[in-house]
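## Example pair
The file below holds two records. Each record gives the amino-acid sequence first, followed by its structure token line.
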Amino acid sequence: MSSQILKLAGKLGLSPDQEKDFLEAMQAGNRSRSALVITPRAPEGYVPPVPADAVSRPWSHPRVVVPPEGETEAKPGSLPDYGHGFYYPLDLSSVWETAPLEHLPFRPERCLDMCASPGGKSILAQARVAPGEHIANEVHPRRLGILRHNLLRCGFLNLYTQRLRPDQWAEQAPGCFDLILADAPCSGQSLLAKGIPNPGCFHPAATGGNAKRQRGILLAALQCLAPGGFLLYTTCTYAPEENERNVLYLLKRHPELETVSVPELEPFHSGLTEEACYRLMPFHGAGAGGFTCLLHKKGEKPPRPPRADELLAWPIHAMGSQVS
């Protein structure tokens, strides 16, 4: 066990038993849990060809199916129904991270997923709140291709894609969105809990560099957020610099922001702050782990400002019927 992992474990606000469980999980590398999101492509009443776990999870969703832990049948991504687009597989942690969306007081008129590839958070947002207009953004061309392929395969009808940088969004769409998803690029420390090597992910240069980039993304996102709107910030890493400290940075810099309590996530409340920040750890049995915080921009919801038509230049629905 590296000294950097041991040092991180001591910074997470865990009890001695939890710290031991965390270190064991990181060493075991087998804490990934699969979940399947049923898509619009699936026939009415569709049941995936995998058994469903009987565990009740108050933060899950009816369109999410969780195979039993340790399921040894064929991987969901290798089955024909995956190719047909009937479901989208992801780590159960992602389902947990999007649970705060259930607490929005309205159906979002406009949603921007600022760091969308490969598409899981956009797909979960569609399942949970079905935004009226949804733009999934990815700046890297190759990842944009993966994103479009996944959304097309799953049969979504009201999605668009874009490839703008965060600063370009801030310039071109100020105050245009009432929901923004920021699943920010991070050090990806939870990959180790899945058994996937990720050299250097605990080094201060990695966590510090990612935290700085995340703050830039979040500050740009806030410029795009309308008063009364919501920003969901999520990561798949454990470092406080990339999680709670970023939230506290935003709250200090933007007094119009507040965190939103999520009752079903209270068992996961971070021990590092009294704000409504939640941590899923690999010893919780619901995936490799993650962080989530829903931020509300206080103020009366104004009329939607104009939005440039070119931001909707790459619709998904125009090609959806070509996917089989």
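Second record, same layout:
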Amino acid sequence: MSSNEPQGPQTPPPAQAPAPAEAPTASQPPAETVVAAAAPAPGQQPTPPQAYPAPAYPAQPYPGPQPYPAQPYAGQPYAGQPRPGHPAGPYPGMPYAAPWPPADVLRSPRGLAVAVTALLGVAAAVNLFSAAISGYAFSLMKSLTADPAGVGDDALDRSDTLTAIAGSLQLLILLATAVVFIIWFHRVRVNGEIMRPDAFSQTRGWAIGGWFIPLGNLFLPYRTAKEIWTASTQFAPDGSFREVSAAPVNAWWAVWVLSALSDRVFSTMYRRAQTPEGLRDASAVGMVTDLITVVAAVLAIVFVRKLTAMQTTKAEQGPYAAV
């Protein structure tokens, strides 16, 4: 078209479609959160509508250390066991393994109790024999003191031989009984700790070591025996403590200590005896000591049988008595 040519009316540009409304973004509040401003007062410029501030994130937990769960996770028998897949070290996640401590189990003391009872019965018989020999020696020394010519050498040699035999038998049966009794005593001590761990004031090793401490062996095993007795007692059906008479423990220990002290007196007197009078007095003390030892052996049998029965009942019926 020529530039000198008159120009007609220009064609209006095509109408543009309105831009689509933008979706609200994270920084832009939704339409529902926009509110109209209150009506302005006369002569006051209208305030543009304001939006509520963006909602805050929910409160975060305290960043400090969190408590351990009250219940262990599935498959963990007790607190402190490493999680499955972790090495069994002293702490979870340790790179080296450590052996599990051996688990204690109840072991029946009935077999040992039968052996101890039999040995105590033999010990009582041997001490009765020794008491008879001491009585014979006492009578012989009394006759020798009254009439030295009336006692022959054969009678004196016979008394010495019988006394030596009785002493050897006492030593042998004492060693055998002591070994088996201490094994039984340790067995019931371990069972008592499994049944009631809070009943003991010292470790289980004292059930053995307490017998070999000078002077301490006069009271340490007794304390252990009383604690075993308490641990082996069943609770009442309502869960309260049910006290069982400890007379077998107290009587056995009192007579055993008396026997041990009397035996030391007899041994000292017998070593120092140089005259018929001295041998006579030593024989009298020896006869009394043997009789006290017989009573101690009988009371020990009662104690062993009663405590074994208590532990057997508690192991079979549980910690609570039926009636």
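Notes on the second record: The longest helix spans residues 153-195. Confidence is low (pLDDT under 50) at residues 1-38, 61-91.
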